[in-house]
Amino acid sequence: MRRDIQISRESTNAVRSRSGNGVARDLETLLNFLRIRGASTRPLVARETGFSRAVVAQRLGDLQSTGLVVDSGRDASSGGRPPQKIQFNADRGHVLVADLGATSIDVAVADLDGRIVAHVSEDADISAGPEIILSHVEQLFDNVRAVSGQAGGVPWGIGVGLPGPVEFNTGRPVAPPIMPGWDAYPVRERLTNRLCVPVWVDNDVNVMALGERAEGSARGVDDFIFVKIGTGIGAGIVSHGTIQRGVQGSAGDVGHIQVVSDPDIICRCGNVGCLEAVAGGAALGRSALRAAEQRASVTLAEMRAQRGTLSARDVAEAARHGDPVSVQLLQQAGRHIGQMLATAVNLMNPSLIVIGGGVAGAGDVLMASIREVVYGRSLPLATRHLQIRHSTIGDRAGIAGVAAMVIDELFAPERVSSWIENGSPVGRPEPAFY
Amino acid sequence: MRRDIQISRESTNAVRSRSGNGVARDLETLLNFLRIRGASTRPLVARETGFSRAVVAQRLGDLQSTGLVVDSGRDASSGGRPPQKIQFNADRGHVLVADLGATSIDVAVADLDGRIVAHVSEDADISAGPEIILSHVEQLFDNVRAVSGQAGGVPWGIGVGLPGPVEFNTGRPVAPPIMPGWDAYPVRERLTNRLCVPVWVDNDVNVMALGERAEGSARGVDDFIFVKIGTGIGAGIVSHGTIQRGVQGSAGDVGHIQVVSDPDIICRCGNVGCLEAVAGGAALGRSALRAAEQRASVTLAEMRAQRGTLSARDVAEAARHGDPVSVQLLQQAGRHIGQMLATAVNLMNPSLIVIGGGVAGAGDVLMASIREVVYGRSLPLATRHLQIRHSTIGDRAGIAGVAAMVIDELFAPERVSSWIENGSPVGRPEPAFY
Is the fold of B93-210+398-433 the same as that of B219-390? Predict the structure, then answer.
């Protein structure tokens, strides 16, 4: 992230040197104002941005000539002849987004507001390796652009979410546990070089956090923690409206925080007592199997006899039917997750925690235990206004979040200043260094 | 913090509306460039900021006429007649800073680079309450300004560090455990109203983190965690070069994170197993007393007989003399602190941890245990380049950090844009809303 910004500042400066004035910066201010605030009148733009009306008229004219800003009817609210309104033109370009899961590929076209306009979804096994999977993604990009009527246009950017740790600067997976063959594969470089557009790659949890902020349970919230409880456990941390990736991009990797000291609980990472090893979906499934084998739970034993195996989903179902062992398993998992979150709350003092991922749908038992520990173990000042909510958009968070990531990057002030005088980032010479 | 920025944006906009152009913003860019980069030639300024040479010449002229920028000799490095260099004038104004401890008041005058130019230190008991202590601080402000030769000038801002939780937006302590009478006292408002200058108040740990960044072990580091191990334990979190205060300002309050589940370890906060209750200086002193009473350690028993009581300092001394019980106590404390930090590293992926505070001076045993756990329990990606260092400036971090806080706030881009056309923030109508 740091290096990235450094580079983009250099290109910004290069453009400024050429233009020799602050026009690009003024255009960026006005464009992002309209993009974030929505349709507006010229007097309102002048008042809120602090530019004179003459400057606003001139610069909005420039933006209109590039197609980035368009007329949008009249404001009916004031007396006399209502003033003309203008708005950001989200249809001026499009971006391509892909959200890769362990067994699925979601690919979509989004407009410049990050709204999904076409979406295809397919089964695919990530362990087939990067060559096969990314070729398939490229194929799906073509398909979905055809569906959306964008086959002719050049996308402004591409975003990819991957189910494992990613070094954001380089766009390469780092020792991803469920992605054999992907370690250090240059995902960003490959797509950049093949498609000649800027590409950003991040892990699935960070993009889900961005998706929750764009259109889910964290809409409009600047400081929150998103926790995905699936087979494993991960977190996306948003602070001052920005995803916190940390220095190497591993921030939020909470699955391997130690929560119990029992030397018998060995995690797949090799350490003992990791959160994932006691509260992840895989761990819940294992505990349920054990309870079924030992006939501690008749319900689970019957489910196992029917289904051959047991997953976290089965534990949730059994808990809903009142199976005390399953209720206890979910309570234990919730308390361990709550313990990690209480620490995170004391460290970071967010205003919201959003719980998502497959196991999060397990119902109220898990959520109640998480709440109990977080509110009981965090500082009163830190929990005074703290909310803990379920994800409301579930699986959609991924693809919406990848779109939000690309839009955030494309419209970051320094980056806008470097392309705005061309009217779009398309066709710039060095997308790789973008 | 959020509300603060909101307000400052509004005042920025008010100024921009009056000036009707981006001049204030250009002046801000140039001023902060020189302030951060040091003395520079005009061609270099033009190249690095992207402004044309004509704009640079004109705007630097404006800044010189306000006294914020001054000539600084010639650049000898290039051939021919060396170009004139210019620099930020840190003597153009001064700020007043106070760092309050449990039993001490440090007060200083700093220049606009945050360098301390005069400093007085006195014993004082914070539990005397805010009226008595702040009157005394105001008196010391007069004294130190007289010493520094600044008695005539109006300070540009005031900063205060307090030994307890502070809500940064309002500048009020929130249920501070060792500050009876201070809860919710309007420290910021009082000083603002009496001295008619902008005031910022924060807790001692956050300001120490800023001090380490300004001139200590975290110099130039953008993403780090500072941990103060004193009577209690607290952390200051810096991310992207900015202190992370969280939504209510309680971020970094790590002393009450649960690290053991032993129901017998009851913390003064009422919870069980808090970090502070097992690894803080007070806890170390208590454990040492117990070891002396039970004659588990002859060294500690002898020290106790001589001194009447035992503190963390005594444990450190006994450990240096090879007392095995004291070594063990420090190892245990270090492991618990390391456990909290391993979690923090997994959550935030910083590049540096700085250990400071009175107990941090206990020597290598404590540090070795902290390192052992952090490197053993954090993700390999997160510790690949992670460093763990002692504070090198110790107590000086507090006063240097308060100065850095005030300078950071005064020169925040939005705030500079609101005062730069006056040449200084002095005499603005509403310092309270600053």
Answer: yes
